[in-house]
Design a protein that fits this description.
With 350 residues, this protein is an alpha/beta fold. It is built from 13 helices and eight strands. Helix content is 43%, strand content 10%. The structure holds thiamine diphosphate.
Length: 350
């Protein structure tokens, strides 16, 4: 499904796509509804994917981002088709928000024909170059240096596009974080680094292994401009991403967005997160991006039935998609030898 276009007249009245003023007091309702829809689509997609694990439909691991939906939705609302995206092991939300076909993604999770990567990659390797999505990545922080490289290519080609690179708080403890940010700032490359700080690195509390004041300070130490925001507040993410993308496109160099959020479930779709303090989880989950957005819609006098209709539509879409994907055929075994880099080695049986 394509990302919906915004109403042209409305966009014109607001001075251009994404250039919204005074969002807090006077939010653009159609835009807010669209954010709500996209967040619910992500949540419904992942809820169906988690159910599909129990149905033995998912051969590999999945890492749901339920609870973190405002970050990809608010950021990707400012990306055009020719802007690029680098994602992580927890990448469904980023990929959907960039406009990927949800059924192709579900087929990919199930290893079926018609999957984003012809069923050969699974959740952690989804890529869709047709929408500028250069890849999820199962190697923590490895996408950061790839993003710097992609942005360098854009700059050398004289393109006025940005690369959005999402990663977790745990990734900021790895070497590629240093390498990627250093390179991006040295050459003033068009990268928006988005740290989704959900406080956890798999089963370890990130604060237990983080020296210094945290990810934003690390980015600032390289000279990057940046901000720390409540990543569960869709308006805050929308506003911060708007400013960051505008600054990058005006030649301001790389930008760092530190988004404080929370992973509602465990590390993977089957992890019960028993290592987590129940009181911490309960408090954090009260700041739910979807519920907060629904509240904003209510405040703007959107009826309960309209709000529910958006939710029901997203749920129905993803149920249908899961059902279709579960009936999709398996790929022809021979395609395993296609799309591989060193075909000579494969053919020689090495
Ligand atoms: C280089 C590397 N080390 C370890 C792992 C195992 N691993 C997978 S996800 C993860 C935690 C990553 O935490 P964070 O970057 O905060 O992302 P989050 O899972 O919270 O989205 C770890 C340690 C890995 N995939 N790659």
């Amino acid at each position: 499904m394509q990302k919906p276009e915004y109403d042209a007249e409305l966009v014109h009245a607001l001075g251009g796509a994404g250039l919204l003023t005074d969002q807090k007091n006077n939010p653009d309702i159609e835009r807010l509804k669209d954010h709500y829809r996209q967040m619910l689509r992500i949540r419904a997609f992942e809820s169906e994917a988690v159910r599909a694990i129990a149905d033995a439909l998912v051969p590999g691991f999945i890492h749901p981002s339920i609870g973190q939906e405002a970050v990809p939705v608010g950021v990707c609302a400012h990306l055009g088709r020719d802007d690029l995206l680098l994602s992580t092991h927890r990448g469904h939300g980023h990929t959907l928000a960039k406009g990927a076909d949800a059924e192709a993604m579900m087929r990919e999770l199930f290893g079926r024909e018609g999957g984003t990567c012809r069923g050969k990659g699974g959740s952690m390797h989804i890529a869709d170059f047709s929408i500028g999505m250069l890849g999820a990545n199962g190697v923590v922080a490895a996408n950061i240096t790839i993003a710097a490289g992609a942005a360098h290519a854009l700059k050398l080609r004289g393109k006025n596009n940005v690369v959005a690179c999402f990663f977790g708080d745990g990734a900021t403890n790895r070497g590629p974080f240093l390498e990627g940010l250093n390179w991006a700032k040295t050459f003033d490359l068009p990268v928006l680094f988005v740290c989704e700080d959900n406080q956890w690195s798999a089963t370890t509390k990130t604060s237990a292994m983080l020296a210094g004041p945290g990810p934003l300070a690390r980015a600032q130490s390289f000279g990057l401009a940046g901000t720390s925001i409540n990543g569960n507040d869709i308006l805050a993410v929308d506003e911060a991403a708007k400013n960051a993308v505008a600054s990058i496109k005006n030649g301001g160099g790389p930008h760092f967005l530190h988004c404080r959020t929370y992973r509602h479930g465990g590390h993977t779709g089957t992890d019960p997160a028993a290592y987590r303090d129940a009181a911490e989880a309960e408090t954090a989950m009260r700041d739910d991006p979807v519920a907060t957005c629904a509240q904003l819609l209510r405040k703007a006098d959107i009826s309960e039935s309209s709000i529910r209709a958006i939710e029901e539509e997203a749920t129905a879409e993803m149920r249908r998609i899961k059902d279709n994907a579960s009936h999709a055929p398996w790929p022809d075994k021979r395609i395993v030898y296609e799309d591989v880099q060193d075909l000579g080695a494969v053919e020689a049986g090495r």
